[in-house]
From TrEMBL:
Residues 294-381 form the Deoxyribonuclease NucA/NucB domain. It comes from the Bacteria. Residues 256-277 are annotated as: Disordered. This is Deoxyribonuclease NucA/NucB domain-containing protein. The keyword Transcription regulation does not apply. Keywords: Signal. It comes from Streptomyces justiciae. The keyword Signal applies.
Length: 390
């Protein structure tokens, strides 16, 4: 069949994501294991997790522990010819691994299945996929031949294809922080030459830094990237190795007036994870900074019942058991016990409790691991939260 000019009225629609159900709530699904180096192929277990996770079936996809992102959803492309719609529904899996040792992110894409109504769009229709990145970043892989295939070839023979996004070693502050936007674009082209308008997907955000070269980030790799479309939070379990810490924080966040010092006094203690970015969170500070020293000094005054913390509503005398004085917000945050208002007055929005020593140490180690794993930067660059689970 030969196409005659003017005979066919061809209207095109971009690739659009179909609506989906509500996403999973926080901590319903365990995060995949972070990888030390970018893989040549996605991990099979992670792919299976992604494909079975309701939150991944969305236009935004799902960021797991900031090192990994995935999406398993269905998009469509259609062409209307002489009043008749020809359409393909394309189910795909996409994943992004953030490099933990370089300013790089690797994107994977695979067509899992497709369905057509057998009009001008059919199994032999060509689909072209590319990745775009904005703001001081480069993409490699768009010119590879495996990004342009017939739908049948995409599904039955291609498997995962990949792109690398590289962030230039430049940016804000001593950490050289750079934030980038990336997206997929796709187009269907029939064997008759009819094409959909190139569809551009939703922007996804990544952040890259060279913080490991800056004093205060001991033990970090010099450079790394994260997936930035998520509110970072640390999860403590009331049945885990830091159970006492979890119980203390839960009380501080949900019943602050029941905490010491000044028990019975209204307090507003920040840091509770709700999923709302407008809720007040915590901001990391450097160990040894003036703010950190002030937080630790205030904790010691409360712990030792020094004036003015020696009243009946203050922390009781240390019991004979092997316990330590746990504080919240953490000493390594701007919101810690030594936080003051603009006039220099202590805010008093904190809590100290006696916690089993081993559990308190475990809680501190978990916080250090979280800072490193999720690449929590100091100052205003990262606001994070605390999630308490049973």
């Amino acid at each position: 069949m030969r196409r005659t000019s003017g005979l066919l009225a061809v209207l095109a629609a971009a690739l659009l994501t179909l609506p989906t159900g509500p996403p999973a709530t926080a901590a319903e699904t365990p995060a995949p294991t972070a990888v030390a180096a970018l893989p040549d192929e996605p991990d099979d277990d992670f792919v299976e997790q992604c494909q079975n996770d309701p939150e991944s079936n969305s236009e935004q996809g799902r960021v797991w522990d900031r090192t990994t992102w995935c999406q398993h959803t269905t998009s469509y492309g259609e062409i209307i010819v002489n009043g008749q719609t020809s359409r393909a529904d394309i189910t795909y899996t996409a994943l992004a691994y953030a490099d933990q040792a370089d300013r790089k992110v690797r994107i994977f894409f695979q067509v899992d299945d497709f369905d057509t109504n057998y009009g001008v769009i059919n199994s032999f229709t060509d689909m072209r996929i590319s990745v775009g990145c904005q703001a001081l970043c480069d993409v490699s892989g768009n010119d590879d031949s495996d990004k342009d295939n017939m739908l049948l070839t995409w599904r039955d023979f291609t498997g995962f294809v990949s792109w690398d996004i590289t962030s230039q070693d430049d940016g804000v502050g001593a950490e050289r922080i750079a934030r980038h936007r990336w997206n997929f674009s796709g187009q269907l082209v029939t064997s008759y030459g009819q094409a959909t308008v190139p569809g551009v997907g939703l922007d996804h955000h990544i952040r890259c830094d060279s913080a490991g070269t800056v004093p205060g980030y001991g033990g970090w790799t010099a450079k790394a990237c994260i997936n930035d479309d998520v509110l970072p939070y640390i999860t403590y379990s009331k049945s885990g190795p830091a159970a006492g810490v979890a119980q203390h924080i839960e009380t501080a966040l949900n019943r602050p007036a029941d905490t010491y010092p000044n028990r019975g006094t209204p307090k507003t203690i920040p840091g509770k994870y709700t999923g709302n970015p407008d809720d007040p969170g915590l901001h990391r500070i450097a160990v040894g900074s003036p703010e950190y020293v002030a937080n630790r000094a205030e904790q010691r005054r409360i712990r030792d019942r020094s004036v003015p913390y020696n009243g009946p509503d203050d922390l009781p005398v240390k019991p004979p058991a092997d316990v330590q004085a746990d504080e919240f917000p953490f000493a390594s945050t701007r919101e810690g016990l030594g936080a003051r208002d603009a006039q220099g007055n202590l805010l008093g929005n904190g809590s100290v409790a006696w916690v089993d020593s081993a559990q308190n140490i475990a809680g501190g180690n978990q916080l250090k691991d979280f800072y490193k794993r999720d690449r929590i930067l100091m100052g205003d660059h990262d606001e994070f939260y605390v999630n308490i689970v049973p």
